[in-house]
Design brief:
The chain contains 14 helices and ten strands. Helix 2 (15-40) packs across helix 10 (184-203), helix 3 packs parallel to helix 8 and helix 10 (184-203) runs parallel beside helix 14. Helix 11 (220-234) links the parallel strand 6 and strand 7. By secondary structure, it is α/β, with parallel strands linked by helices. The protein is globular. The protein has a five-stranded parallel beta sheet, with helices on both faces. Strands 7-6-8-9-10 form a five-stranded parallel beta sheet, with helices on both faces. The chain folds into two domains: 6-181, Rossmann fold (3-Layer(aba) Sandwich), CATH 3.40.50.10490; 184-333, Glucose-6-phosphate isomerase like protein, domain 1 (Rossmann fold).
Length: 353
Amino acid sequence: MQNKGENTLREILSQPAVWADTLKVFDANRESLMAFWEEGQFDQVIFTGCGSTFYLSQSAAVIFQKLTGFTSIALPGSELFLFNDLYLDPGKRTLLVAVSRSGETTETVRAMQIFKAGGFGKTMTITTVPGSSVTKFADFTLIAEAAQEVSIAQTRSFASMLLLAEAMAAQIGGMDTTEVFASFPDKVAALFDRYQTLAQSIGEDHSLVKFFFLGSAFNFGVASEAMLKMKEMSLSNSEAFHILEFRHGPKSMVDENSLVIGLLTESAAHQEMPVLQEMAGLGGKVLTVAEQSNETLASIGEVVEICSGVSEPLRALLFLPVLQLIAFYRAISNGQDPDNPHNLDAVVHIPSA
């Protein structure tokens, strides 16, 4: 008989190998991607998805704009197909990047249909399923087939699709993607080796009943996805906020039963660290995920050091895997099955209007 969460844990821990395979996919498509980009002469990029892939789009859009200089935004698929007149400008050459694990999510497919029918620009998809509906509406595809999952909650699929989005941004931004990303599989393996025990101890700590995931810029979408994993897998009270925004009301919820998880940037750490210090002063427990630790961070709580050595935007992906483990262990300690979260399906279909 299969143990609860067996698929989820295997999928989380398989990421070093799956990321390596995903990078091979990108390498095989690098030249054709650049030709597609140069031919398009785009003015702006819109990333879209639903649920996890909308959160992925939030980080991907900020990373893309930072590395390429092109205007880039993220929108839920539902916003695009319900209110496209608010967001789509026929006077601009737009690239729509639709992200979908299954390739069948109704809102995302409809957004692509409306975009193409309106002649707003070119479409691209990042998915895990060849031949899925989103690929049929895409002018260019990146497919992380090895990242497909049995579990309903996205883990390695999210990370692998974000890896493709990061590699795309880096390539268009003029970086040597082979050199930049070659060590990513080893880096995630090292994070699991160093922090799996810590993740388990945090997940199993039942004094914690509220989880706040804080991240800004490149890290906000990742913080939101970590929040969603905690909520989906373990049915725990979890929320995501931009770091400094947390002071503006949400900090009222912090007490000794709270865990505040801060995903720090280096460029704004001097403003972000005081927020975490303040939350510790309010009695909350603090976990910081950062490129490197320091005396201040170590004094206020546990620290997960990424030690990536890559540029700040590209670190966002590496902030996620340990947080996926925390959500997994929380679910298991609650007696839940993260392979089959309560009330959820792998693909959301909505009826035709």
